[in-house]
Amino acid sequence: MNDLEVTELFLDLSKKYTSLYDLEREMAKCPGATEDEGNVNHIFSGGVYIRQLIMPKDTLAVGKRHRYETCNMLLKGEVSVYMGGDTPAQRIKAPFQWTSPPMTKKLVYFHEDSIFVNIHPTKETDLEKIEKHFIIPEKEYLKLPEGERQ
Mind listing the domains of the chain with CATH numbers? Predict the structure, then answer.
């Protein structure tokens, strides 16, 4: 997809669905949809957990909502990222790094085979405990007072 097609797709989706969570639930109903997160590598080093996601070209994905500010890196490829709200989607090309605010949920279109990384400070190595600490389930997020939601 070119930039205009991706922008139009993201705009159409944001008009049709009131939240990325609603879009995610609808995407799950599509034939061939999967909750498969692609090829994920888990790296632990010196009090840091690195979650490396390898995604194929032409994939549309909705990420999990992170409780805290998160360091993101695109190591390989090119993607368009929409993080909700009034901020337009951004097309980025590797190498690129940025920080997303707490409670952010991302919609990503992978223009090329890509490697995407999140970095979390923790000495924990149990993936279930890490996810429970850093990821906020949508049902829990929706119970938060309006002012705490993004």
Answer: 3-148 (2.60.120.10)
